[in-house]
Amino acid sequence: MAHELSLPCFDGKCYFDCMDALTIEQEALKLSPLSRIRLADLLYTSLEVEADRDWNRKAIDECVSRYEAYKNGEMGSSAGLDFLDRIESIAPSP
User: Fold this and answer.
1) CA-wise closest residue to 75 among 62, 87, 86
2) Is the pLDDT of residue 3 over 50?
3) How far is Cα 67 from Cα 11, in angstroms, rounded to an integer?
4) 44 falls within a domain
5) Which residue in 15, 30, 42, 61 could disulfide with 7, CB within 3.0 to 4.6 Å?
6) Residues 16, 7: contact at Cβ < 8 Å?
7) Long-range pairs for 35-40 at CB < 8 Å and ≥24 separation?
8) In sequence order, what are the residues at sequence separation of 6 or more whose Cβ sits closer than 8 angstroms to the Cβ of residue 66?
9) Does position 51 have pLDDT exceeding 70, yes or no?
10) What is the DSSP letter of 6?
11) What is the residue range of 65's domain?
């Protein structure tokens, strides 16, 4: 479930833009324990989403790069099962 934090704006600026980190912390600590948990979850989730976006962007860039290399003849290909057989043949036994 996505949480939205509705913030008042003044002269087109978000309320938090007008506050420094210490003030934000002091205001957050005035919240009830449940509200602080929700705020912490919201902040943590926003970091996960940002990290996921960054990872996805890098993965897509890598896929595009490999596909372009394949199309240009700079990289070969293997059938999936043949590749797995080669990996199993060189992997150490458990």
Assistant:
1) 62
2) no
3) 49
4) yes
5) 15
6) yes
7) 38/3, 39/5
8) 75
9) yes
10) -
11) 9-89
Q: Taking each helix axis as running N to C, give the angle between helix 21-29 and helix 33-71, from 0 to 180 degrees, rounded to the nearest 10.
A: 130
* In-domain check, residue 21: yes
> What's the rounded Cα separation, in Å, for the pair 36 and 56?
30
pLDDT of residue 1: 39
pTM, rounded to two decimals: 0.42
> 13: helix, coil or strand?
strand
- The span from the CA of 48 to the CA of 55, in Å, is 10
Q: Which residues of 50-84 are buried (b: 16+ CB within 10 A; e: fewer)?
A: eeeeeeeeeeeeeeeeeeeeeeeeeeeeeeeeeee
Helix H segments across the chain?
21-29, 33-71, 80-90
Specify the number of domains making up the chain: 1
